[in-house]
Amino acid sequence: MTEAALSGTTHPILENDYASEWMGIEVLAVTDGHATIRMTLRQEMLNGFGMAHGGMIFAFADTAFALACNPVHPGPADADSITVASGVDINFLKPAYRGQVITAVADRRSSAGRSGLYDIQIFAADAGAPSGPPLSSGTFGELIAEFRGRSRTIPKK
């Protein structure tokens, strides 16, 4: 499996994440409590209306959520636990279409004990639009969805 590159390293949770690999997710940035990822919408990611299937947008945002919740470099204290979703909500604001590049920006809002709260914004821009740092408007294109995730740290099996 090809691992998502991140400044010469990989995020441990992507090593066997075949869904994220199939989606073509690229990690732009990840730190404790934050992740920025992007992918290009392909034909097989569209619904019968010719727009991005809601499940694809959800899965994309969920990957950003997982990256923000779990450490890039797990320490000894992290060896016996993982952080997973305990619940999520998503609001679809605008459609996205084939060929557009979508970017998800995940940020931790709160963390207490084993629970956390994360907001993930998903943006869409036409292929060839500026990538990298946010556009002058402060976004990576047009805001198309907002995802709020509640996390829980649990023991590894």
In short:
With 157 residues, the chain is mostly beta strands. It has helices at 18-23, 54-69, and strands spanning 26-31, 34-40, 81-92, 101-112, 115-125, 142-155.
What features would you describe in this structure?
- The protein is mainly beta.
- It has a single domain, classed as Thiol Ester Dehydrase, Chain A (Roll), CATH 3.10.129.10.
- The chain is built from 2 helices and 6 strands.
- A hairpin with a 2-residue loop joins strand 1 and strand 2.
- It starts with 17 loop residues before the first helix and ends with a strand.
- 32% of the residues are buried.
- The N terminus is likely disordered.
Please give the structural blueprint.
Elements: H1 18-23, E1 26-31, E2 34-40, H2 54-69, E3 81-92, E4 101-112, E5 115-125, E6 142-155
Query: Quick one: overall form?
Result: globular
Identify the CATH architecture. Roll
Query: Into which percent range does the helicity of residues fall?
Result: 10-25%
State the low-pLDDT regions, or none. 1-9
How many alpha or pi helices?
2
The CATH topology label is Thiol Ester Dehydrase, Chain A
Quick one: biggest sheet?
6 strands, antiparallel
Rounded to an integer in angstroms, the radius of gyration calculated over CA atoms is 15 Å
Please write the string of helix (H) and strand (E) elements: HEEHEEEE
Give the rounded overall mean pLDDT: 88
| SS elements, strand count | 6
Question: What structural category arises from helix and sheet content?
Answer: mainly beta
**What is the CATH H-level superfamily?**
Hotdog Thioesterase
CATH domain class name? Alpha Beta
Percent range for β-strand residues? 35-45%
Tally of separate domains: 1
State the end-to-end distance: 23 Å
